[in-house]
UniProtKB/TrEMBL annotation:
Cited PANTHER family: C2 DOMAIN-CONTAINING PROTEIN, MULTIPLE C2 AND TRANSMEMBRANE DOMAIN-CONTAINING PROTEIN 2
Keyword list, A-Z: Calcium, Membrane, Metal-binding, Repeat, Transmembrane, Transmembrane helix
SMART domains: C2
Encoding gene (name): Mctp2
Similarity comment: Belongs to the MCTP family.
Protein name per its UniProtKB record: MCTP2 protein
GO cellular component: synaptic vesicle membrane
Subcellular location: Membrane
GO MF annotation list: calcium ion binding
Xref: InterPro entries: C2_dom (IPR000008), C2_domain_sf (IPR035892)
Species lineage: Eukaryota, Metazoa, Chordata, Craniata, Vertebrata
Domain C2: 1-59, 93-204
Transmembrane segments: none
Chief site of localization: membrane
Pfam families: C2
Amino acid sequence: KSANPQWWEQFDFHYFSDRKDILDIEVWRKDNKKHEELLGTCHVDITALPTKQTNFLELPLEKHPGSLLMLIAVAPCTGVSISDLCVCPLGDPSERQQISERYCIKNSFRDIKDIGFLQVKVLKAVDLMAADFSGKSDPFCVLELGNDMLQTHTVYKNLNPEWNKVFTFPIKDIHDVLEVTVFDEDGDKPPDFLGKVAIPLLSV
């Protein structure tokens, strides 16, 4: 019941500088559980924003009255990466040694926020459900840890896809759960759900 809502929510997205990313924002109103109405959209060109500072933006909603006030900061992020198996971040013995020293007991309280990191090798999926009329699927895999999300490329027309990717996440809370979800890419439509597994960090 407000024309001037305040949310004060923060969202973290991984932005890789070699991509030209547009942040798409939609504002919706909800009458009840069944009825929703789009109040407007706006777009932010991430590549045009100055880095290493907080940018205050007042974004007018397209084709609708009103505007959206946002704070957007583009800052370097450490610990997040996507790589191929052949260049696995922990494959180098000297790098493993550096990491062992970084997280040894004597350094436990040097940086309270630097708990550690998780490396996940996504190799393949087997016997996935067919989501297309052709009896195949176009699967890709999404990994979520806390509010961090990374995903693989899509392997088209395949029920036994091989991704062979290595994902590295910084750990912010040791009680977080790694969620791995497989979707079927469906063009402009929302992807179809093919399966999910949840792995608590404390079980690793």
